[in-house]
């Protein structure tokens, strides 16, 4: 009797059993890697947005004559020369907006998408320094409480009016956060380059 | 496909999965390190900004030692330490070199990370 080539039922069962383990592992690995790649790309994009926000924010604060919190305390308003104002506002989680106005006319509007991070604006030393604290979502070791005065995170702070007169701004010369612009020092002392 | 071939492929796949998991773990760790470095850089920039905005006569070795890290950075960076060094620059006009360094530990026992920023301020005509 001629012997027939092929697989036995036991061999097939064993192979199917092994494949039942191996294939989900392979699929899971591919899914895991794709998700990691996506998160990495998001992290890079958020880092670039934070860099851009940092540069723009510092530059604006340095050029400002005065700073105050907005009425709803979600942002800050910077007062510049020539009736220009710049308002930074934490719109939602991961979104900071910047609106440049000349008088009542909106000249420019920008948005910075900083991922799933919370942002909070604060005035320090009666408006002499303005800071925005960005609390990334990825941190799990320290609990994030949005009601706390100083949430842990990346803090971008700048001195108001530094571009105008470096080293000449004593605290008493700067207006308070809610004082009207009439209390500002004369503009000749706060030159904007 | 023999059992031997399937077993070999399973071993190879296991090695690939293990390597991939390690790579992802490494990527997450690097992301955390980059975030903390970013935080330290912004804190150092803020400290430099605050010091260099002072009047020329107020920038002294004693006064810069009183500068402290922002609370947010202290909470974000474990065991963070700030050191500010001030040295006079013999130049015309006279200048001061301010070096800010922040050190922190990624985790206990790990190598200490640090960032350092340096700026120079010079005496202007109004400061004399």
Helix and strand layout, with pairings?
The complex is a heterodimer of chains A (193) and B (128).
Chain A: H1 9-63, E1 66-69, E2 75-79, E3 84-92, E4 95-102, E5 105-113, E6 118-124, E7 129-135, E8 154-159
Antiparallel strand pairs in A: 1-2, 2-3, 3-4, 4-5, 6-7, 7-8
Chain B: H1 3-52, H2 61-65, H3 71-76, E1 81-89, E2 95-105, E3 112-122
Antiparallel strand pairs in B: 1-2, 2-3
Low-confidence stretches of chain A: 139-149, 166-193
Mean pLDDT of chain A: 77
Given the C-alpha coordinates, what overall shape of chain A results?
rod-shaped
Question: Which bin fits the share of residues in helices of chain A?
Answer: 25-40%
Number of strands of chain B: 3
Please work out how many helical segments of chain B DSSP would assign. 3
State the distance separating the first and last CA atoms of chain B: 88 Å
Radius of gyration of chain B: 24 Å
Distance between the termini of chain A: 102 Å
Tell me the series of helices and strands of chain B, N- to C-terminal: HHHEEE
Strand fraction of chain A = 25-35%
Could you tell me the mean pLDDT of chain B?
85
The two chains with the largest interface, and their residue counts, are:
A-B, 44 and 45 residues
Spatially, the strands of the biggest sheet of chain A line up as: 1-2-3-4-5
Structure summarized in a few sentences:
The complex is a heterodimer of chains A (193) and B (128). Chain A has 193 residues and is an alpha+beta fold.
Give a verbal description of the structure.
The complex is a heterodimer of chains A (193) and B (128). Chain A has 193 residues and is α+β, with helices and mostly antiparallel strands. Chain A has 1 helix and 8 strands; from the N terminus they run αββββββββ. In chain A, strand 1 and strand 2 form a beta hairpin. Mean pLDDT of chain A is 77; it is low at 139-149 and 166-193. In chain B, a hairpin with a 5-residue loop joins strand 1 (81-89) and strand 2 (95-105). Chain B starts with a helix and ends in a 6-residue tail after the last strand. Chain B has a 3-stranded antiparallel beta sheet with strand order 1-2-3. Chain B is of the alpha+beta class. Chain A binds chain B through residues 11, 14-15, 18-19, 21-22, 25-26, 28-29, 32-33, 36, 39-40, 43, 47, 50, 54, 58, 129, 131, 133, 136, 138-139, 142, 150-159, 162, 166-170, and chain B through 1-3, 6-7, 9-10, 13-14, 16-17, 20-21, 23-24, 27-28, 31-32, 34-35, 38-39, 42-43, 45-46, 49-50, 52-56, 59, 70-73, 75-76, 121, 124, 126-127.
């Amino acid at each position: 009797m001629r012997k027939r080539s092929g697989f036995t039922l036991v061999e097939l069962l064993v192979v199917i059993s092994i494949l039942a383990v191996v294939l989900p592992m392979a699929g899971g690995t591919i899914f895991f890697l794709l998700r990691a790649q996506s998160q990495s790309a998001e992290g890079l994009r958020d880092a670039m947005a934070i860099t851009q926000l940092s540069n723009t924010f510092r530059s604006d604060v340095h050029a400002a004559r005065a700073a105050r919190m907005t009425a709803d305390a979600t942002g800050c308003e910077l007062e510049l020369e020539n009736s220009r104002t710049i308002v930074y506002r934490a719109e939602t989680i991961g979104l900071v907006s910047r609106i440049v106005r000349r008088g009542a006319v909106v000249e420019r509007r920008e948005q910075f998408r900083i991922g799933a991070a919370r942002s909070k604006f604060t005035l320090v030393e009666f408006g002499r320094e303005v800071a925005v604290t960005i609390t990334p979502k990825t941190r799990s070791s320290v609990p994030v409480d949005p009601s706390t005065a100083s949430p842990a995170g990346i803090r971008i702070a700048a001195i108001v009016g530094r571009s105008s007169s470096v080293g000449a701004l004593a605290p008493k010369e700067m207006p308070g956060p809610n004082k009207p612009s009439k209390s500002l020092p004369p503009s000749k002392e706060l030159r904007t380059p | 496909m023999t059992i031997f071939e399937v077993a070999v492929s399973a071993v190879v796949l296991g090695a690939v999965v293990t390597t991939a998991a390690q790579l992802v773990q490494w990527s997450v760790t690097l992301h955390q390190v980059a975030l903390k470095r970013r935080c330290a850089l912004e804190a150092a920039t803020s400290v430099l900004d605050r010091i260099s905005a002072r009047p020329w006569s107020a920038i002294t070795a004693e006064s810069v030692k009183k500068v402290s890290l922002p609370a947010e950075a202290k909470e974000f960076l474990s065991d963070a330490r700030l050191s500010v060094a001030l040295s006079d620059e013999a130049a015309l006009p006279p200048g001061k070199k301010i070096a800010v360094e922040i050190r922190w530990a990624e985790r206990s026992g790990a190598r200490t990370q640090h960032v350092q920023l340096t700026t120079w301020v010079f005496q202007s005509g109004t400061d004399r």
